[in-house]
Design goal:
Layout: E1 23-29, H1 33-44, E2 49-53, H2 60-64, H3 67-83, H4 96-127, E3 131-135, E4 137-142, E5 145-149, E6 156-166, H5 186-190, E7 202-206, H6 210-221, E8 225-229, H7 241-253, E9 257-259, E10 263-270, E11 273-279, E12 284-286, E13 289-290
Parallel strand pairs: 1-2, 1-6, 2-3, 7-8, 7-13, 8-9
Antiparallel strand pairs: 4-5, 5-6, 10-11, 11-12
Helix pairs in contact: 3-4, 3-6
């Protein structure tokens, strides 16, 4: 939901004020990769730009819960695996407490990476003198007017613009099955300063897209038992078959179980564990779930 995040990124106090002007050349709605690059280029051309984002900083979901934090965690685990000579990958012969400490350290590292990048973005905004940035929620009134309101509802202002650039991206959804609230998603796993700091000994990942595969790979590198459930005939739909075969081979060598043609029809809690009901498969018992992005 717009303006609703467990932890907001760092911002600048002046970004929380209403827009300075009543009229701009361009209003950009969304501070993700599409929005802020566009705003910066337009400002270089001499246009006066207002950029609006409900997080109060740039980077969108990519920085808040997506590619940057996930790669930070992945590289931390990858380097540790290389340094320790694969010791982390000895399923059944691992010190789970040591693995959890490593995971918590990896999460702390990615929080720091995100924090540094957010501070860099604040400086970038201020380096573009033709760009005004506002932490707020935008509502399009018509093709030349936008209503901007503070995230906390403390102010609202209508703005005119010659052009509107809508770069809002999309929001992840929970799978439409009973018990979906028992699962977690990317915001809980990789979100900025997430409260989810520990991991169990086994995980089911719903969805075999590239993010699901990436999560399975990094967790299995730590000796965590990972299972991917994909409703299509193969994981990584749309990828080259030869590449997918190599990836599947690598995943299985790391102990990852891949269940294809398996549709999740329900999730329930029983005896302190989660039970996943699959169409065409037996229920799978897990202690923690990751939702598809």
């Amino acid at each position: 939901m717009l303006g609703k995040y467990p932890v907001f990124p760092p911002t600048d106090s002046e970004f929380e004020d209403p827009p300075k002007l009543d009229k701009y050349d361009v209003v950009v709605i969304g501070g993700g990769g599409g929005g802020y690059h566009g705003a910066f280029e337009l400002s270089k051309g001499g246009l006066k730009v207002l950029m609006i984002d409900d997080k109060g900083n740039l980077g969108g979901n990519c920085l808040y819960e997506g590619c940057i934090p996930s790669k930070s965690v992945y590289m931390t685990i990858y380097l540790m695996e290389k340094i320790r000579g694969g010791i982390l990958n000895s399923v059944g012969n691992k010190d789970i407490n040591a693995v959890r400490v490593l995971w918590e350290n990896a999460i702390d590292h990615k929080d720091n990476v995100q924090y540094i990048r957010y501070l860099q973005h604040i400086r970038e905004i201020k380096e573009h003198e033709n760009v005004d940035f506002v932490k707020g929620v935008a509502e399009v009134i018509d093709e030349h007017r936008v209503r901007v309101r503070a995230v906390d509802g403390s102010w609202s202002k209508d703005i005119e613009a010659r052009q509107l650039l809508i770069a809002t991206g999309s929001a992840p959804i929970r799978i439409p099955v009973p018990g979906a609230d028992l699962a977690i998603g990317s915001q809980e796993l990789f979100g900025y300063k997430t409260s989810y700091r520990k991991i169990p000994s086994d995980v089911v990942i719903i969805g075999g897209g590239y993010i699901g595969v990436e999560v399975a790979s990094v967790l299995s590198s730590m000796g965590i038992k990972a299972t991917i459930v994909e409703m299509l005939p193969r994981i990584l739909a749309g990828w080259d078959n030869e590449i997918v075969s190599k990836i599947e081979e690598k995943l299985r060598s790391k102990g990852v179980e891949v269940l294809t043609n398996s549709k999740v029809v329900g999730i329930r809690s029983e005896g302190g564990r989660r039970l996943l009901s699959l169409r065409g498969q037996m229920a799978v018992g897990v202690t923690w779930l990751v939702l598809r992005l």
